[in-house]
């Protein structure tokens, strides 16, 4: 059993680090400076420089890898690119090379030939297959949840019914296509507590609001519910969000739909409560991280 991540760690990283270390040395940086920029030890830089680390020639010869090394080497040396920006660019290339039929995907299938023939229509490196799509949603949702868990003061925004951060697959039709936190997020002694790993089909209400918004034209793929507060709405408006009110005591789909149709650009939906219904604000966005960051900025 060999995962594609092992190909990245064992083949891609040594290759790109070796090439990038060499490029930075050619730009006039010292071993110490290169080590700090790449987040590795000076001894590792020395090994890369002296060719003591085995690299994958197929990866090294790829034009996209070469272009990335040149761009990052020049940018890092000149101070035009930060180490974090370099990491992001490398991550983007890795995801591209993992896509179906591309370099890392092919290396993975070469290492595990049975993957290429697994099932009649299933290819693990097909970016559109259901498994990869669902895993991307769950991974994004976990990142969003970490943002909320680490956001000081988020517990104070959790309503009495609890919060939930949800995200859906691109062609979501019902709550089974929406992932969320089982049992919701609650305030436990002033700390936001996530009771379990996100799953599909575990959120009823927040998922329904998201789906209703999407059915009526919203392109949101994630949502979170927080307590209703006119001051929060005012701050969200000040930050450029479009808000829209709906009536939760009536048919949810029709009510949310009417709100979206009145305000097609709405990224914040809210209802002010009714008998037995707590007032709630729903923040919508393109992905869980964006939604979580919107909430964090309110704190």
UniProtKB/TrEMBL annotation:
InterPro entries: Aldolase_II/adducin_N_sf, Cro/C1-type_HTH, Lambda_DNA-bd_dom_sf, ThiN
PANTHER family to which the protein is assigned, alphabetical: HTH CRO_C1-TYPE DOMAIN-CONTAINING PROTEIN (PTHR40730:SF5), TRANSCRIPTIONAL REGULATOR PROTEIN-LIKE PROTEIN (PTHR40730)
PROSITE patterns, per the entry: HTH_CROC1
HTH cro/C1-type domain residues: 26-48
Name of the featured protein: Helix-turn-helix domain-containing protein
Protein's organism: Natronoglomus mannanivorans
Alphabetized GO MF terms: DNA binding
SUPFAM superfamilies on file: AraD/HMP-PK domain-like, lambda repressor-like DNA-binding domains
